[in-house]
Amino acid sequence: MTDTINIESETAFNTNTILTLLLKYLDNNQIIYALLESTDYNTDWEKDIKLLVSGKIFKKISGHIYEFCEQNDLIPVQKLRYETTACFFVLSYFNNQQDRFVHIKVDVCCEYKIDGCFYLSSKELLHNRSYVIEKNYWRLNDTYSFLYYLIKSIDKKNFSQTQFSQLSKYWVAVNAGIVQKLKRFFSEDSITIISKCFNGKDLNYLNSNLEDLNKDLQAKVPKLIRDIISDKLRLLSGALKPSGLVVGILGRDGSGKSTFVNEMVDSLAPYFREINTFKKFPALFYKGEIFKKKEAYDFSKPHYHKERGRIASFIKLNIILIEFLFGYWLKIFPVKAKSHLVLYDRYFIDVLADPRRYRIKENKFFIKAFHYILPKPDIWIILDLPSDVLLQRKKELTYEMAEKLRYEYLNLHSFLPNSIVINNEEEIKNTVNKASTFILNYMHQRL
Fold first, then answer.
1. CB-hemisphere CA count at 13 Å for 125?
2. Which of 23, 134, 282, 441 meets the CB 3.0–4.6 Å disulfide criterion with 5?
3. Number of Cβ atoms within 10 Å of the Cβ of 191
4. Element (H, E) at 104
5. Integer-rounded Cα radius of gyration of the chain
6. Residue 45: predicted pLDDT
7. Distance between CA atoms of 94 and 101, rounded to whole angstroms?
């Protein structure tokens, strides 16, 4: 993707509008589909849009989703392949009324697999769909809706009251013919338990037998060698091209980094599986205390402590280098490969802008050399403030010190690729929107 995000789109979106547009796109392109109605949101499409398509269409699904977005002023920013036969896309748009980015997830699958176990083919599922006239879309019929969500809930060993209530409605509608279908996946004893649960509407009894039902399901539908291999290849592909993201956040003390990180966690959570935050060091080996002096160290005034000599500074610089090198590969990259967002408050390069904070005698040559050795964040965000505003928050600095540090941090912008300077003097939501635009644009272009 090469387009740049434009937040000035005048199209008024909500999930129902996007769903309607997507169904129209599928019909216009003669794509056979079935909507998988979530048992949590089966009346209002408030959350994910879940689609079932054929294996042939699934191979081309990225192209279809991107074409749909281009036609409707939506921004695709994330693609995550969580099974060999399933992936979800995160689409985004800027909601002018809410003054923030809003997301919608489109979850697409063909063969019904969970953790490499094959349950139902797309051919069988699409052959057993029904048309909902009042809502104008195709979905799985009641029999296969029951099978689909029963297997899913038992595999996850989790049944909510909402899920159970919806499955009970399906059970009442298809009671007579469902037992024969269940024999493919469960033993007679398990089918007896399932029948007793839904006939008696007894969720507690079902939950008390979930472990046994899960074991029976796994025994009836074992993983095939080919599915295990393809699943491992999917994981390897994800590690070679991670869908996670590492964001380095830089700026002087008092520039609002901690508040910014907290707000960004809420803003970007929908686009990733999880969010991890780090501050200053990965904390793998080094905890920030070496060459510790007997005198008390005031962490609120790091710039007033005496810097170390050249030898001690060089030793500490190497220790920090080792900490970041091993910390990245052992703590940061593994979560990035799992599609996590990593927000890093400061990073190794912070030593270049503010060596006094680390009590390191300035040596830009070695700091830059070590920076090139290290793996780096994908994106850099440098928070800036006028020094007179910053001094209202961080009074221990002199104006001259604040100006010198500001100059050093702003210089990093030309040194670091994929970096942006954001003035954090305005409301925090404006800073978050600017940073989100920058990050989502990066994610959009890397698809």
1. 28
2. 441
3. 18
4. strand 100-109
5. 27
6. 36
7. 4
Task: Name, in order, each residue with C-beta under 8 angstroms of 386's C-beta and a sequence gap of 6 or more.
Answer: 425
Nearest-10 Cα torsion for 188, 192, 193, 194: 100
Matching residue, tokens 């961080």? 394
Model pLDDT, residue 40: 42
Query: What are the two backbone dihedrals, phi and then psi, of residue 382, each rounded to the nearest 5 degrees?
Result: -110, 115
What distance in Å separates the CA atoms of residue 81 and residue 59, rounded to the nearest whole number? 12
For the segment 190-227, what is each residue's pLDDT rounded down to a tens digit?
Answer: 999 999 999 999 999 999 999 999 999 999 888 778 77
Quote the CA–CA distance of 308 and 368 in Å, as a whole number: 19
Question: Are 79 and 109 spatial neighbours (Cβ–Cβ below 8 Å)?
Answer: no
Hey, which CATH number is domain 1-140, 3.40.50, 2.60.40, 3.30.460, 3.90.320? 3.30.460
94 bridge partner residues: 101
- Let me know if domain 244-446 sits in CATH 3.40.50.300: yes
pTM for the complete prediction? 0.87
Helices 310-327 and 364-373, axial angle in degrees (round to 10):
10
Cα angle 256-257-259, degrees, rounded to a multiple of 5: 70
All residues at 6 or more sequence positions from 359 whose CB lies less than 8 Å from its CB, including other chains? 302, 305, 306, 307, 308, 313, 316
Which strand ranges, in their side-by-side order, compose the sheet holding 75-83? Answer: 75-83, 86-95, 100-109, 49-53, 33-35, 137-140, 129-132
Q: Where in the chain is the domain with CATH 3.40.50.300?
A: 244-446
Q: Check if the beta carbon of residue 307 is closer than 8 Å to that of residue 361.
A: yes
Domain with CATH 3.30.460 in the chain: 1-140
Checking if the pLDDT of 189 tops 90, the result is yes
Give the three-state DSSP class for 197. Answer: helix
